[in-house]
Amino acid sequence: MTQSAATDFDTSLVWFRRDLRLYDHAALYQALRKSKAVFCVFVFDKAILNGLPAEDRRVAFIHASLLELDAELRKAGSALIVLHDDAVSAIPRLASRLGARAVFANRDYEPGAKERDAQVTCALEAQGQQLISFKDQVIFETDEVLSLAGKPFSVFTPYKRAWLKKLLPEPGWHSDDLLSYPVDQHADRFARLPFSVTARVPSLDEIGFKTPVAIGTDFSAGMASATKSLDAFAARIAAYDHDRDFPAIDGTSRLSVHLRFGTLSIRAAVRRAVELMRTGEGANGAATWLSELIWREFFSMIMHHHPHVATQAFKPEYDRITWEGGETAERLFHAWCHGQTGYPLVDAAMLQLNRTGFMHNRLRMLTASFLVKDLGTDWRWGERYFAEKLIDFDLASNNGGWQWVASSGCDAQPYFRIFNPVTQSQRFDPDGTFIRRYLPALKKLDAREIHAPWLLSSSRLQDAGICLDRDYPAPLIDHAQARQRTLERYAVVKSSS
Ligand code: FAD
């Protein structure tokens, strides 16, 4: 394992952020190895919480995961310190109080997190302490996978090839980047808290959130649950290649939230994929799944090298597009957000998001495409909505996904490729099973009818108990006309694409 510091410390503090687990944890492993006594802290950062809705699933997920962390630390004779404060001032203050000369943390690559960490580093250094950071959230970070010319990639396929070559340079062998960090080797170094420090995980109410908040029917928080989900997914990975595109099937891992908050170690996930690829059982499924995990790293790398993508198009010429505006755009956007577009699969997908905090990948692509290329709305509106609702919201992956769909990102789909919401529905929800799950008003329509109810005769609609615009909306727009408008809208970038 690589190390950033060779010094030993009497006392250290481990600052948990998006790594809420006690196994295979780079910063925790190094702190325990290098220190006689280790304290653990998590900060509900007011700078972040203040902008969130009261019933935020992410906060509930974090909260439940912290309860598990705290319970495990108590078994080791310690406890988790949980603060509700501004991290920038709270971490240096706590480090001083505990006499910790070093704060250990895993690196976070989001622009806001980097800024926060720079400020914490300054404040700690002013007190004669230090922030020591480690790679943990990804297998390869920032500049570790570069082209032969030494430049960051902006196209996925060659990035993936280089990434795989670095990880698995020879048959049967893998790089050290996949090794686990065995935290339990020094578990006796977790420190008992001094009386002056309160260790109690505050309730959601105490930090200004509604309790209880349903995390969502499909997710349970915490590292034990993440490991269970990974095991369950590994047993059906052979079908991933085929099933992953069908939202009615439980075909994907649903591990994104665990990877987001680090209740699952990315090394554990990749190790499992590599093992399954090598045993031959489910090898194709495992290879495809690994490829998805590489997309996650690709977008993280893009966000690091091109932080402007957080607010602007990766390809600047796409910021010349004129999006719809005014009241009409607001009305269309509102209908999209609330699953009222009149296109059943788009609407069912938005209801899945609103009710569970999750949306299937195929549907993220479809709904995003519908907003941008059917309704002519600026992709940033949709990106913000997803950011507010997704339990697995990750700035880099969300931004990468939206810019891919809007064609403005690196290695995005060509601007003239526009999803047809009806044929997508016929292809990926052929029986209408997913649609019926969220739109019971359409439950009496058969597999041929359910994808475009407005095409049915009024007597057939009546038989099925549907009155358009009363029980289910008529379509907001005509797709063929919208497609034409989009091609015209995108003409400003045509010459440079
Ligand atoms: P699986 O199919 O099991 O994939 C395994 C893991 O690979 C995922 O958990 C995720 O960590 C990663 N992954 C898969 N696909 C992608 C991808 N296209 N880009 C980056 N990572 C990927 N993913 C997020 O984690 N957070 C987001 O905020 C997010 N926003 C998105 C917005 C749009 C418009 C689009 C098109 C995609 C977005 N994705 C996002 C990617 C993808 O949709 C989700 O990661 C996936 O649906 C999560 O389900 P899963 O864990 O079952 O995925």
UniProtKB/TrEMBL annotation:
An MF annotation (GO) of this entry: deoxyribodipyrimidine photo-lyase activity
Protein name: Deoxyribodipyrimidine photo-lyase
Superkingdom in the source lineage: Bacteria
Residues in Photolyase/cryptochrome alpha/beta domain copies: 10-139
Gene3D superfamilies: 1.25.40.80, DNA Cyclobutane Dipyrimidine Photolyase, subunit A, domain 3, HUPs
Alphabetized PROSITE patterns for the sequence: DNA_PHOTOLYASES_1_2, PHR_CRY_ALPHA_BETA
EC top class named in words: lyase
Family note: Belongs to the DNA photolyase family.
Cofactors named for this entry: (6R)-5,10-methylene-5,6,7,8-tetrahydrofolate; FAD
Keyword list, A-Z: Chromophore, FAD, Flavoprotein, Lyase
Annotated EC: 4.1.99.3
